[in-house]
Design a protein that fits this description.
- The chain is mainly α.
- The chain has 2 domains: 119 residues, no CATH class; 285 residues, no CATH class.
- A hairpin with an 8-residue loop joins strand 2 and strand 3.
- The longest helix is centred in the C-terminal third of the chain and has 36 residues.
- The two termini are 30 Å apart.
- It comes from Orchesella cincta (Springtail).
- Keywords: Membrane, Transmembrane, Transmembrane helix.
- Its main location: membrane.
Amino acid sequence: MENDKDAYRLASLESKEEEEGFFYGDDEEEDLFIKPRPYNNPMMRYRCCAALAAIFRLPTGNVRPLWCIIFRNVLLILVYYVLSIGLTFYQNHLLKEIKFPLSVVLCHLVIKFLLASFIRLTYELYTKQRRVLLDCNNWLKKLSLIGISGGLDIGFSNWGQEFITVSLYTMSKSTAIIFILGFALFLKLEEQHWSLFIIVSMISGGLFMFTYHSTQFELTGFLLIMAASFLSGLRWTMCQLIVQKSTLGLQNPIDMVYHVQPWMMIAVLPFAIIFEGPHIGSRSMSFESMQEKAAFLYAMNAILLGALMAFFMEIAEYMVVAYTSSLTLSVAGIFKEICTLCLAVIFNGDQLSFINFLGLLMCFTGIIGHVAFKVMNSTRELEQTNHNTTSINTVSISTSKNGSHVSNLPNVLRKEPTGGESGKPLLQVTSSAEVESDVEIDDSWHQRL
């Protein structure tokens, strides 16, 4: 009887420590969303956790405190903001001087591949550890579609900026969420729901109103950006599938950039040769005058600076997704696009009519509705998980000597140290479906908690 009381006291203490550790970030950080503990907690706690987990990946381990995780994620998003907005305006200005957007993108891809290769080689020489290197079969089958769609996405985006304004580019490119949603439904990554179709209709209608009778509308640039949005949806949907395959070992953004860039170059190269090759050949420089040398050096430095910005932006983008979730990137993208549009109107003189402004509001409302829908889904999933855990109605503690049980203990699903001569765990679970038998909690189940 004394052993039963000690075991009960130990289980209660462990339960309290687990709950406090979960609040203050003393658990392991191992998943994109919080996995709720199966012991009893207020429902409001789960709802708050769901909302926070949808925005930030809260820690579930004893790696670092909660404030440190949030600070890191906010810092990554701010870096992504600065690089993405800066690159948009920089490329828009650069392509007005250098009329070869596809060739510029091709140079960016080559420089990014060389940078990723240099970083990987430096890491291997410094740590004496080999970085992941996919075999030819996996590289062909699993990364070709991501690389080709990504290369054409970037190429068409830069090509379209030559024809349209920053504001129209930003709004047109924001429709990528429609294609992401479509591919996610097709690949069973999202469940069909009536609200999703309303959200898509709002975004589509907002885009139509934004481009309706626009004095700065240009059909060629608009079609190029819409094609880029379609390819962006395909790219990020397939990328989500690949990143979730932990067996490939491409969670590190440097490794992902290294393996994907060759496919991007292969996709952009034919378009650059066909549409820009003859013009570049006809404008060949002799480099005899100082003016030609200065123009060439200026162009190379401008392209190199853009490539560095694109490289670090891509790294920041992958890190935001890796440390938080795709939902966080969607939330960040909404405010980034608002900032980009405001800056375009203020500094570039872009014009918006009243109809265009209403379309802008409708499109952003649809995007925000999509984010809210994802948050509600996260809350519903956590509440369902909590409901499932309540089916475990008793936790019995058995001693190895007399096999006695103590019922109605807190639901602490933890494997206790073995004791006595039997070598069985002291803490066992009895479910409502198995009232007569105790279900033993093994190490793998404990780790999944």
